Amino acid sequence: MKFLDPKRPLETCQEHSCDNCNVKKEIHCHFNSNQAKKFLLSVVPAMLVGLIGIYMYNPLLILIWLLICFLYFGFIEIRVMCSHCPHYAETETKTLKCWANYGSPKLWKYRPGPMSTLEKIVFILGGLLIAVYPILLIILSQNYLILVVYLILIVVCFYYMRTYMCNHCINFACPANRVDKKVRDNFFEHNPQIRDSWKK
Ligand code: SF4
Ligand code: SF4
User: Is the dihedral of CA 192, 194, 199, 200 positive or negative?
Assistant: First the structure.
């Protein structure tokens, strides 16, 4: 996996070096393969158990779930959420090189500033649809052991993201972002164009 050069500031950033940056340790402007692997380790087990649960009800319905995941993570989420992310503004690559949506195409234009209410609704409902789809089918097939394992893995995945990702994420537009105001303000000082787009 290839990632942005960690020594080169983001294109939105006005600094010439990241070396002595006061937010460098607080938020992740650059990503690496370890972060991507940890994210995959938190998500893939839940997805595999979800797939097994759907398969036990009706193998054909796996295709619908995979199609929803592909459309959501490949296009819809990228438009409503990631297109607001400073990482998205990088012109060096045409696909995302971050910890979560690595490889998704950047088809939309970069739109700094907050997400609209409609974008937040689409973002949340899309995520819920993907998480709940297997639950409904597992209940219909009455495989309650698989249901419990799936729910536990979803909670673990959610906990991991909330604890180790959302509080270091540079996309302040995301409704799940947990970076505190002081760190945000410091980041805005380095990225005045982004700050201005939040003031509009
Ligand atoms: S805010 Fe700028 S200088 Fe600081 S870590 Fe991010 S890209 Fe580097
Ligand atoms: S919002 Fe998250 S997943 Fe989307 S581009 Fe930014 S870091 Fe990647």
Answer: positive
Q: Is 150 helix (H, G, I), strand (E, B) or coil?
A: helix
Q: What are phi and psi of 95, to 5 degrees?
A: -125, 160
Nearest CA to ligand 1 atom 8: 18
Q: What angle do CA 10, 37, 184 make, to 5 degrees?
A: 35
Task: Give tens-digit pLDDT for 42-72.
Answer: 999 999 999 999 999 999 999 999 999 999 9
Span 75-87, pLDDT tens digits: 999 999 999 999 9
**Protein residues with CB under 6 Å of any ligand 2 atom:** 81-82, 85, 87-88, 96, 98, 100-101, 169, 171, 174
- Residue 95 alpha carbon to ligand 1 centre in Å: 21
Which residues lie with the beta carbon below 6 Å from any ligand 1 atom?
A: 9-10, 13, 15, 18, 21, 23-24, 29, 187, 190
Residue 37 near residue 44 (C-beta atoms within 8 A): no
Which DSSP string do the residues of 53-77 spell out, in sequence order? Answer: HHHHH-TTHHHHHHHHHHHIIIIIH
Q: Tell me the three state secondary structure of residue 5.
A: coil
pLDDT of the residue at 130 = 98
Backbone angle region of 68, left / alpha / beta, with phi > 0 → left and psi within -120 to 50 → alpha: alpha
Structural domain boundaries in the chain = 33-199
